[in-house]
Design a protein that fits this description.
about 150 residues, mainly alpha, two-stranded antiparallel sheet, elongated
Length: about 150
């Protein structure tokens, strides 16, 4: 199973924010530059993460992005389920629909495999993903582009 680009970006944003110091609040543009993704993609993902309660975004002077406690300590499996959805891995009902759909055992096997994938991520938190050696590397991304919060 391959994650969508949007989920990949969301996880990288969450991980980058997890190592941000309390006196820093990077903007979406700064985080996008740090993780090397287009700003427009990052902005859409940040909006989705806000909606899910993972990221808090403040506008204006002294604003920026922060990872919420739920974002920091919540299950990566739950987050990936929310971002990816739990639909079928294959398009059994696409046009034209698969001629085996009424008697196929593959669909159920793939659904079980998908759930096993999510279940393997359930006990992991974003905070755990940012331990060494990842955290120190995350701190070097975009060095100099993260501004101090003056409020």
């Amino acid at each position: 199973m391959r994650l969508t680009k949007s989920t990949d970006i969301a996880l990288r944003i969450a991980m980058r924010l997890a190592v941000t110091r309390d006196d820093e609040a990077p903007t979406t543009r700064e985080v996008a530059a740090a993780i090397d993704v287009p700003y427009t993609h990052a902005a859409k993902v940040v909006s989705r993460l806000q909606h899910l309660g993972v990221v808090e975004a403040r506008r204006g002077r002294g604003g920026g992005l922060t990872l919420t406690t739920a974002g920091r300590l919540g299950s990566v499996g739950r987050l990936v389920r929310e971002l990816e959805g739990t639909g079928d891995v294959v398009g059994c009902e696409d046009e034209p629909p698969c001629p085996l759909r009424g008697a196929c055992r593959l669909r159920g096997a793939l659904r079980a495999a998908q759930e096993a994938f999510f279940a393997a991520l359930d006990p992991i938190t974003v905070e755990e993903l940012t331990g060494p050696p990842t955290g120190p590397v995350l701190l070097t991304l975009g060095t100099g582009s993260i501004r101090k919060n003056t409020s």
